[in-house]
Amino acid sequence: MNKALKEILFSEEEIRAKVKELGKEITHDYMDKDLYVVGILKGSFIFMADLVREISLPLLVDFMSVSSYGRNAKSNGEVKILKDLDFSVEGRDVLIVEDIIDSGYTLKYIEQMFKTRGANSVKFAAFLDKKESRKVEMEVHYKGYEVPNDFIVGYGLDYSEEYRNLPYIATLKEEVYK
Ligand code: 5GP
Ligand code: MG
Ligand code: MG
């Protein structure tokens, strides 16, 4: 294991099983809907790729890029759109796919924006949930795992753009990011 890592939280096998479960649930819930799956870059790209292959329905795939923490591992509540959607959300059932929810500011902001743009419904699929550090009230409709308030990397999640390619999910040693 890489020296910067503290502990492996979820193995490849655990991740695969959980994504399958979520995909089944989503397939069931969106049977008669107009599903538009929106991944938030970059962190969601691996979860997104795995998840859409477990959804047995016709759907649109898109990505949006918003400003993120950068180096200092802290959210300030401000969200800037760096890359917007390719299609209109109007009348569509939007499923926002995130790697991890922390304060909740990012998703809350995007949800409000999609509703203003006329989406029929907006739901969230987040692979990881740092529930203790939530700053806004929100329901996470499809959730992989709850995690402690540590810094997490792997399966798409980075620290300074590194570690995204780890096939498992791990915590980073405090001395690396503090
Ligand atoms: P929120 O707006 O919910 O505070 O921010 C969520 C975003 O912050 C995530 O999509 C992710 O990009 C980043 N983030 C929050 N916690 C972590 C973490 O433990 N590790 C990594 N790599 N990113 C995180
Ligand atoms: Mg993210
Ligand atoms: Mg990041």
UniProtKB/TrEMBL annotation:
Reaction(s) catalysed by this chain's protein: GMP + diphosphate = guanine + 5-phospho-alpha-D-ribose 1-diphosphate; IMP + diphosphate = hypoxanthine + 5-phospho-alpha-D-ribose 1-diphosphate
Pathway terms, separated by semicolons: Purine metabolism; IMP biosynthesis via salvage pathway; IMP from hypoxanthine: step 1/1; Purine metabolism; GMP biosynthesis via salvage pathway; GMP from guanine: step 1/1
UniProt KW keywords: Cytoplasm, Glycosyltransferase, Magnesium, Metal-binding, Nucleotide-binding, Purine salvage, Transferase
Biological process (GO), any one: guanine salvage
Domain Phosphoribosyltransferase: 13-159
Cofactor: Mg(2+)
GO cellular component: cytosol
Top EC category: transferase
Compartments in which it is found: Cytoplasm
EC numbers, comma separated: 2.4.2.8
Molecular function (Gene Ontology), one example: hypoxanthine phosphoribosyltransferase activity
Function: Purine salvage pathway enzyme that catalyzes the transfer of the ribosyl-5-phosphate group from 5-phospho-alpha-D-ribose 1-diphosphate (PRPP) to the N9 position of the 6-oxopurines hypoxanthine and guanine to form the corresponding ribonucleotides IMP (inosine 5'-monophosphate) and GMP (guanosine 5'-monophosphate), with the release of PPi.
Family, as annotated: Belongs to the purine/pyrimidine phosphoribosyltransferase family.
Protein name per the record: Hypoxanthine phosphoribosyltransferase
